[in-house]
Backbone:
C-alpha cells in the first residue's frame, strides 16, 4: 500500500460523507460513489473527497449504505475490486456480513465495522468531519486477514475514533440490549401516548421525556436495523416481557397473587432494587458513578445571556460543572437549570450564585 | 378563617418540610408533627414552621406521609380536628382517599392533592422553599365542600404551584401512563443490565442512559406508589406487553410470521411511526415542538470556565440557548456539549463559536 491509501466510499449519506471528510483531512485519497449522483456531488462539496472516476482501483472500500442494501453492495464491491479490503458501517453485523458472504463477498477481505456515531439528521449535508471523533468504532474481524483488520483499524483511528475489536455475534447481542431494545421500548411507550387524552399528557414530566426521546428516531433506518438484528432483539424482548408479566401479575386483582398487597409490594420492590443496581453499572462521566454529584438548581429568566451569566459565575469561582440539565416550564418564560457538581463544591457554588442575585432553588 | 390560616403538617420529609417553608414564607402559621420527633425538629430548623403544641386547632391539615401510611393518618387527623380541611400530597389518589374514607375520614372535608415535585434526595434536609414553584399541583376535589377545595387551591398557590383540578381516577390513570409505567420500564430495562457482560455495557450510549435514568429512584417510595396504583398501571402494562409481544412475534423465527422479513419490517415500521407521532404529542419548551430546534455541538476541554466561555460567546451574540446537553466521553477529560437553538440562529452561533476558537463539531 502506498503512503496515501485510496479509499472508495459507496453511499454518501451522513456516515459515508463524514468518514470521507475525516479521511480526506487525514491524508487519504477518497473517491465517492452514490446511487444518487447528486448526493455524491453534495458530499464532494462538503469536502468528503472526489467523485469516482473510471479506472480507479481502491485499496479499501467503505460500504456506507443502509443495512438492507449493504450485503448486496458489499458483495459486488468485493467482486469489482478483487484485491481491496472491504468494510461497512452497519449497526448490525452478523446478518449483514453473512448475507454478503452468501452473495459472493470474499470473507478473507471482509472486515465488519460499526462507528457508534450518529445525528438526529441524515444525508450528506448533515455530515461533519468530527462526527466519529472519540466515538467507539467496533471492528468485527470475521475471517479476514490480520493485516486487513489493521488497515480498517487504521482507518477508524484516522477518523478520530476509538477502535474496539469484537466478534460479530457479540456485537449484535450487545447492541440488541444496550441500544435496539431501548429503541423499541421508547417507541412502544411513545406510541401508547397516541390515544392518551390531552390533559393526561399535561401531567407528564422529565421522566417521560427521557423515556421517549429515542422514539423520535428515523423510521426507515430503524426498521432495517431491528429487522436485521431480529434474533438477539427477540431474546432481550423475551426477558423484558417476562419481567413485565411478572409485575403485571403481581398488580392485577384477577391473578393468583392479585389482591395480596404484600406479595405485590415484594415483587415491585425486587424489580426496583434490581433497577437501582443495574443502572449503577452504567458508567458515568470518566467512569465515575453519576450519583456522586450534587445538583444546584437555579430558576433562570429565559433571555439571551442568562446561561452565560450563570456559567460565568460558577466558572470564576473555579467550580467545574459536570453536567447541566434544563427543565423548561410549560407556558412560562423561564427554566430550571440544574448544575451537577462535586458534592464538596455545591455549597460554594450556591453561595456564589446567591451573591450574584440568582434565584437558587436547591 | 382568620387572616393567617393555621396549618398542621403531618410528616416532615422532603415534601412536607418544603410545603412548610413555602407556607411560612407566604404568611401561614405552620405547625409541624412527625412520627420521628427529630425529623420535625430538623424541619423547624429549615424554617418550615414551629413544633406542634397541644391545644392548637388547625384549619388545614396537610398529610405528607408515604402512601402506605397516608389513609390511616388522614382518617385520624379528620377525627382529631372535626372542622379542619384535610389534604394530602400522595402521588396516588383514588386508593389513598377511598381507604382514608373507609377508615373514617369525613369526605366533605377531604381534598386530595398531588404536587408534581420531587428531588433525588429525601428527608427534611433536602427540602427547599421553592420545590413546588411553578410545578403543577393536582387537586382532586372528591366529595369535599367547594370552599374547602378553594382553601387547598389557595394553599397550593401560596407554595408557588399551579393548581389543576382533576378527579382522582383520572389523575391515577394519567400518572400510571405518564409516570408509573415509565418507572417500571426503566427499572426492568436497567435490571436486565445486571447480567450483561462488562464489554457489552461499554457499548452503551446516551440512549440507554436516558432510558434508565429513572431506575435510580427511591425503592421504598416507588414500591408504595406502584402498589397503591396497581390497577391503572396494570392496564398500561397490558398495553405495553401486548405491543412488545406483537413485535417479538414478528421478530422470532419460530413464530407464524417469523422468517418473513417483509411482515417483520411492516410491523416494526408501524411501531416506529406510532412512536414518532406519540413523542410529538409531548409538549416541548413553551409548548413548542422540540424538533423545531437545531443543535450546535462543541467539544469542550473539561476544566472550570469552559462552559462559561461557551455561554458567554453565545450570549453576547444575542443567541438564546433553548436547551443544553453534555455528553461525556468515557476516560477522556472532555465532553461534547450540544446547544439547542432556533434554526435561524444556528449558523450565527457556529460562526461566533468558531471565531472564538471553539472546537465546533456540528
Residues:
Amino acid at each position: 500500500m502506498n503512503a496515501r491509501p485510496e479509499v472508495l466510499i459507496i453511499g454518501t449519506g451522513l456516515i459515508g460523507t463524514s468518514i470521507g471528510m475525516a479521511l480526506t483531512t487525514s491524508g487519504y485519497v477518497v473517491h465517492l460513489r452514490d446511487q444518487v449522483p447528486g448526493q455524491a456531488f453534495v458530499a464532494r462539496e462538503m469536502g468528503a473527497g472526489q467523485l469516482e472516476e473510471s479506472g480507479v482501483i481502491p485499496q479499501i472500500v467503505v460500504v456506507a449504505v443502509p443495512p438492507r442494501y449493504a450485503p448486496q453492495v458489499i458483495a459486488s464491491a468485493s467482486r469489482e475490486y478483487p484485491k481491496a479490503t472491504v468494510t461497512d458501517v452497519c449497526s448490525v453485523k452478523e446478518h449483514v456480513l453473512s448475507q454478503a458472504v452468501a452473495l459472493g463477498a470474499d470473507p478473507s477481505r471482509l472486515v465488519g465495522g460499526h462507528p457508534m456515531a450518529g445525528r438526529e439528521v441524515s444525508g450528506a449535508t448533515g455530515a461533519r468531519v468530527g462526527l466519529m471523533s472519540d466515538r467507539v468504532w467496533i471492528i468485527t474481524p470475521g475471517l479476514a486477514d490480520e493485516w486487513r483488520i489493521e488497515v480498517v483499524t487504521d482507518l477508524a483511528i484516522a477518523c478520530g475514533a476509538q477502535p474496539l475489536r469484537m466478534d460479530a455475534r457479540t456485537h449484535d447481542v450487545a447492541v440488541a440490549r444496550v441500544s435496539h431494545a431501548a429503541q423499541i421500548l421508547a417507541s412502544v411507550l411513545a406510541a401508547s401516548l397516541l390515544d392518551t387524552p390531552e390533559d393526561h399528557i399535561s401531567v407528564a414530566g422529565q421522566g417521560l421525556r427521557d423515556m421517549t426521546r429515542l422514539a423520535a428516531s428515523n423510521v426507515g433506518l430503524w426498521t432495517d436495523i431491528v429487522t436485521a438484528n431480529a434474533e438477539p432483539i427477540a431474546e432481550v424482548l423475551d426477558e423484558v416481557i417476562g419481567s413485565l408479566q411478572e409485575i403485571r401479575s403481581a398488580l392485577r386483582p384477577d391473578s393468583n397473587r392479585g389482591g395480596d398487597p404484600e406479595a405485590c409490594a415484594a415483587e415491585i420492590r425486587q424489580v426496583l432494587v434490581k433497577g437501582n443496581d443495574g443502572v449503577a453499572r452504567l458508567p458515568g462521566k470518566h467512569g465515575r458513578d453519576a450519583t456522586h454529584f450534587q445538583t444546584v438548581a437555579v430558576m433562570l429568566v429565559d433571555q439571551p445571556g442568562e446561561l452565560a451569566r450563570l456559567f460565568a459565575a460558577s466558572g470564576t469561582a473555579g467550580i467545574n460543572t459536570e453536567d447541566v440539565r434544563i427543565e423548561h416550564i410549560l407556558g412560562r418564560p423561564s427554566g430550571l437549570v440544574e448544575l451537577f457538581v462535586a458534592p464538596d463544591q455545591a455549597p460554594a457554588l450556591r453561595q456564589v450564585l446567591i451573591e450574584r442575585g440568582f434565584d437558587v432553588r436547591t
In short: Chain A has three domains: 6-166, 172-280, 290-360.
